[in-house]
Amino acid sequence: MIARANALPARPASGWRWAVLGALLGGLAALAVFAPARWLAQALREATNGRLLLVNPRGTVWNGTAGVVLASGQGGAQPVSLPGTLDWRLRPLWNGVRAALAVPCCASKPLEFNALPHAAGLELEWQDGQSRWPAAMLTGFGAPWNTLKPEGMLDISTQAFSMRWTGRQLALSGRATLNATDISSSLSTLKPMGSYRLTMEGGAQPTLLLATKEGSLQLSGSGRWNGSALRFDGEARAAPGREDALSNLLNIIGRRDGARSLITLG
């Protein structure tokens, strides 16, 4: 009888342990569900070295809204704010997160992608989509855009496009097309200077192709992405009768070779 009486207090102690564990798990679940949007803004700032900023974030990590600012990092060019706000919705997947980004200024439908972490990095699988952005936003990325100060519209479309980071290596697959329409620059009095198409084809050796659709400034070139850097060779020239109006711009965007300006990256 004495031994049985001494064993009874162990039951309440075990119940308290389960209660504490349940409270901790509930608190962690609530923290994950209601984590403030500013946490996502801070993570994005750190991941992009201050180049992509969410300002005045509201809501949670999973459902929120904020303004978007593009910048070239500390000490860089003047930041550029996109019109309106960005609304995001994140949903967990068994192997990652599904995201939907509503950008009323620049896309009629939300831009969607799956973020899939893996052992050595991260993969972003973009749903096919289209969007239109002001070319002036490029100024926020610093040189050479803050010198060119482009104006016009950038139409971007993607087909089966994905980006996979493995360490510092970036693999690209699918296709992404950029149509730059009625582009002008503060370095030329011609407005607009022309319209252009830039096409990226992913694969083992992703390629980049630049062509002129129409305009006084003729651009062409091609390049390859090797996983860590872009090698691009192109040229710019003025249409007949437009040489004087474009001479200053041609001197800046590349190395002059007679009537041409040679553009080399990488």
TrEMBL record:
InterPro entries in the record: T2SS_protein-GspN (IPR022792)
Cell compartments where the protein resides: Cell inner membrane
Principal location class: membrane
Assigned keywords, A-Z: Cell inner membrane, Cell membrane, Membrane, Protein transport, Transmembrane, Transport
Record's keyword annotation contains Cell inner membrane: yes
Protein family (similarity comment): Belongs to the GSP N family.
Name of the protein in question: Type II secretion system protein N
Natural source organism: Variovorax humicola
